[in-house]
Inverse folding.
């Protein structure tokens, strides 16, 4: 079974530029997460999709970040314009949807995109 | 109060010893609990999941869950230098399966 695919692996941009990240989840996984992990910290949830609908974007800085998951499969996360503090690893994860009231599903991560804003 | 709290460490243990990692959480209706291992520069890797009170063992790893006290722990027996990594506690809660992570505990196993 193929894992979560992300691209690019690395990106260096200047502040105020825009950047986009792509994620392809594990086949059949309805839930897709984007996390931001700043060096030395745990992953912080930016946005969560259930199929192609957003179920949680409470920590997404909506003035500069946007994300979409068209057709309920691939997803893109965009930053425009980027700030220095956006330098982080952006992790995409996916999980199955629980059934029968038992949410015993685990999230599996892609390799991440390391963004450096200079 | 943070949703998921961990001691950032580093926790240093000698090779062959038991490493004990702890995590507390604030949401009483949390449903599922996970431990991820993250090597430097790599993405988190799931190593244990636990859903019910008590212990769950998998090889050298044992996860312990106490919902009444709102804590979950991970024991690593016979610690090896290759276990040196950051261990992230994650909690799944809510009707939409929100997964929240702690800040992680850095473990160093000294040969």
């Amino acid at each position: 079974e193929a894992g979560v695919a992300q691209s690019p692996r690395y990106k260096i941009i200047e502040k105020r530029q825009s950047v986009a990240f792509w994620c392809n989840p594990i086949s059949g996984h309805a839930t897709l997460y984007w996390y931001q992990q700043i060096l030395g910290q745990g992953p912080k949830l930016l946005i969560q999709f259930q199929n192609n609908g957003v179920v949680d974007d409470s920590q997404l800085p909506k003035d500069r970040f946007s994300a979409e998951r068209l057709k309920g499969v691939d997803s893109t996360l965009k930053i425009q314009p980027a700030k220095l503090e956006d330098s982080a690893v952006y992790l995409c994860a996916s999980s199955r949807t629980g059934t029968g009231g038992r949410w015993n599903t685990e999230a599996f991560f892609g390799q991440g995109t390391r963004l450096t804003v200079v | 109060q943070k949703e998921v709290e961990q001691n950032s460490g580093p926790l240093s243990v000698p090779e062959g010893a038991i490493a004990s990692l702890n995590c507390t959480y604030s949401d009483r209706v949390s449903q599922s609990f996970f431990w991820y291992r993250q090597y430097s520069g790599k993405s988190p890797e799931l190593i244990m999941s636990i859903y019910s009170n008590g212990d769950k063992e998998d090889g050298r790893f044992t996860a312990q869950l106490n919902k009444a006290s709102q804590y979950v722990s991970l024991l690593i027996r016979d610690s090896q230098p290759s276990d040196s990594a950051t261990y992230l506690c994650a909690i799944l809660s809510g009707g939409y399966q929100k997964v929240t992570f702690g800040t992680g505990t850095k473990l160093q196993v000294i040969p």
About this structure: Chain B is about 0% helix and 55% strand. Chain B has a mean pLDDT of 92.
